[in-house]
Each structure stands twice: as C-alpha cells, then as structure tokens.
Specification:
about 375 residues, Rossmann fold, 5-stranded parallel sheet, 12 helices, binds 2-acetamido-2-deoxy-beta-D-glucopyranose, signal, lipid degradation, lipid metabolism
Length: about 375
C-alpha cells in the first residue's frame, strides 16, 4: 500500500515535471535481461548459439516471422510495458538505433544466455552478460549526453524505469551444469551469496549512473521447465532446482529492500511470480491451459529438442500450452506472469490512469494475441 501511494506520487510528479520541462523527455524503459526479455540482440551476435532467429519463434507476433524473442508472442516485459503505457524499447544491437529512438523508446540490452555472472552461458560462445549490458548502457548515456547535454540527460535517466531480469541462466546454464567450474567451486548457499554480492554491485552501479526507479524480476519454478523434467528420471519437476529459485528470490527480495533504504532517492523493488506459475503447473486447467509439462514446439519424440526449428511441429492450440519450447513460457503464460508482476509491483500507468485490472484472470479463452510489429523487425 505504502509503495502504491509512493508510486502514484512519483508518477504524478514525473509526468508534471516532464510537462513543465517542455514535454521534451518521455518516460522510457531500459531493460537488462536474458532470453526471457531478449527482443533481438542475439540475432546480431552472429556466433551466438542462443538464437531465436528461425521459425517458429515469433509466430504469434506481428507478421509472424522470427523477431529475436524466444517465444511465440510477447515477453513479460512487453506486456508490462504495454499495460503501464510505456513504449517497447528496441534491441540495443539493432542497426537502426539512434539517439532519437532512444529518447522516444528506451533501450533493451537483454541477451539470450546472459547471466548475472560473466561466466554464465559460456558455451553459447556469444551473449551479453549483465556486466556487459551495463557497460553498453554507459555508452548509451554518453550518446545521449552529447545529443541533449548533461543536465537534460541526467533528468531523462533519472525519470526512466529500469528492469533487471536475470538469474535463470546462472543456474540452468552454469551452477547446475558440471561443465562449468562454478558447479564444483560453490555449494547452494555460497553460490547464492556470490550471486547476491555480484548483483548488489551491479545495482549500485546502475544507481550511480542515475537509475532511481528499478525493478528486479525474480525466478519462476525453473525446475519445472520441460527441459528439467525430461532430464529427471520421473518426468516430475526437479525440486532441487525449484529450491534454488526460491532461495534466489528470498535473497534478492532482501537485497532490494536493503538497497532501497540505503541508496539515495532509490525506489528499487523486487517482484516474482513463482507461486502463480507453480499453481498453473499443478492445476493448468484452472487457468485455461491444457499442457504444463511439454513444449508446444517440439521435434517429434526427440527430447530435449534444444531449440524450436523450422522442421519442428507445433501444438494445436498455442494458447493452451504453458511452455513454448524446452526453456521458455508461451505468450499466454507470459501474460499471466506479467499480470502477477503488475499486481506485485502495484503499477499505475505512466499517464496516471489505472492499469487494466491485473487480477482479471488471464488468457484463459483468448487466443494468442497478434500485435503490431516491433520497431526492431
Ligand atoms: C566481468 O566482465 C566485465 C566486462 O564486461 C569486466 O569489466 C569485469 O572485470 C568482469 N568481472 C569479473 C569478476 O570477472
Ligand atoms: C543490509 O546490508 C548490510 C551490508 O551491506 C547489512 O549489514 C545489513 O544487515 C543489511 N540490512 C538488512 C535489513 O538486511
Ligand atoms: C534526491 O532527490 C532530491 C529531490 O528531488 C534532489 O534534490 C537530490 O539532488 C536527489 N539526490 C540524489 C543523490 O539524487
């Protein structure tokens, strides 16, 4: 409640502030993340093995061609932005990115395979780690400073919203894989401590660069992604993996509370949709899904099919599958997750009107929505 009031106040102040300023700077988002938020960066990393550049990725988005999103439709960040009145930021590596585009839409640095830790996802060869994404953000700030000057630039970055959504790969494509040295250098507790120390440094850095309104998204029950189930002997969720997600969420929540009180003028928030997704997985029909354990896009009986391919077959009704591929939720599941996060963060629209009721359950009967093409293509 307190947060909702505070948020409503800053939204009003921010909107007025910008208007008094001459309406020059919009409120935009800067997104740091992994494949759950990537909107095309990895398409421009030609050697990266983490790709969503082939059909049937993007089949329910715009013209239906692959656009770099690792799902059939929208990401969670797309949906939250749409529902809070914020433009969708283009991929940083998009060749059409310009200062004006950044001032109008923000930037998305998210990269499939990326993690909080530099070493995470190493076997994808190319991906942008969170540290690298923050370096690129510094470069973006320099571009904007030379375009509109230091003072206006400071104001612009102070009013912007920041999303940090990484962590899954630090487990799935690092700690839980014996090919990575972190898997034997750490135990569960010391690994989470290491992640929190690293994340704290990264969030402090973003604050020192002017970020004031920042959200960190937690992890879902990642032991229940189709890949984890197929790698277990029983086909059930891997409880060890789920426990790590819960421990990560708990530690992150504490870290964010702590930072929010320590950093000047900071509204740093943590939110996750673990319980809701877990409930969807246990009771899919309650939410209008009829499959919560296998990927909609699969390669016959061959599992795990590491990625969705042109030769793969698709499930009959994509809106009824929780998972799109072995790793990633479908558009319908993302909508459910986004609605839960909107509720947890107590969002209001940036234009001051209320966000659509997030509690209204979900994509239940709606088909996967088809929406305007992203500016990235
Ligand atoms: C991680 O990578 C960044 C460059 O992106 C580098 O500056 C930093 O020193 C590295 N950190 C560690 C702990 O290796
Ligand atoms: C916040 O973090 C500091 C160390 O950075 C620690 O000493 C303190 O106990 C933490 N406070 C809370 C409420 O977790
Ligand atoms: C904190 O906010 C106040 C009021 O907007 C401002 O005057 C001050 O410079 C800010 N401090 C920092 C470090 O951002």
């Amino acid at each position: 409640m307190k947060f909702e009031v505070a948020l409503a106040i800053w939204v009003v102040v921010a909107v007025l502030g910008v208007t008094i300023d001459g309406g020059e700077c919009k409120i935009v988002q800067f997104i740091f993340g992994d494949s759950l938020s990537d909107v095309g960066n990895n398409m421009y990393l030609s050697r990266s093995l983490a790709q969503a550049s082939l059909p049937w990725y993007g089949i329910d988005f715009g013209n239906g061609l692959p656009n770099g999103r690792f799902t059939n439709g929208r990401t969670v960040a797309d949906i939250i932005g749409d529902n809070t009145g914020l433009p969708r930021p283009p991929a940083f590596l998009s060749p059409s990115l310009t200062e004006n585009l950044i001032l109008e839409n923000g930037v998305n640095y998210a990269s499939g395979g990326g993690g909080i830790l530099n070493e995470t996802g190493g076997y994808f060869i190319q991906r942008l780690s969170l540290n690298k994404q923050i370096e690129l953000f510094q470069g973006t700030q320099q571009m904007i400073i030379s375009k509109i000057g230091k003072e206006k630039s400071d104001e612009f970055f102070k009013e912007s919203q920041y999303v940090v959504a990484l962590g899954s790969n630090d487990f799935i494509n690092n700690y839980l894989m014996p090919v990575y040295s972190d898997s034997w250098k750490y135990n569960d507790q010391s690994f989470i401590d290491y992640l929190m120390e690293t994340l704290e440094g990264q969030l402090r850095k973003l604050h020192s660069f002017g970020a004031r309104k920042l959200m960190v998204f937690g992890l879902g029950p990642m032991g229940c992604i189709p890949l984890q189930r197929v790698l277990s002997t029983t086909g059930k969720c891997q409880e060890k993996t789920n426990k790590l997600a819960i421990a990560f969420n708990r530690a992150s929540s504490k870290l964010l509370d702590n930072l929010s009180t320590k950093l000047v003028n900071a509204s740093f928030k943590f939110g996750e949709a673990y319980d809701v997704v877990n409930d969807v997985i246990s009771n899919p029909t309650k939410y209008g899904f009829d499959n919560a354990d296998s990927p909609c896009c699969s390669f016959g009986q061959i599992r795990p099919a590491l990625t969705c391919l042109p030769a793969s077959t698709l499930c009959e009704d994509r809106s009824k599958y929780v998972f799109w591929d072995e790793y990633h939720p479908s558009d319908s599941a993302n909508e459910l997750i986004a609605n839960e996060l909107i509720k947890k963060f107590g969002f209001t629209r940036v234009d001051g009107t209320n966000a659509p009721p997030p509690s209204a359950p979900s994509p239940v009967t709606a088909p996967s929505p088809v929406i305007a093409p992203s500016p990235v293509g």
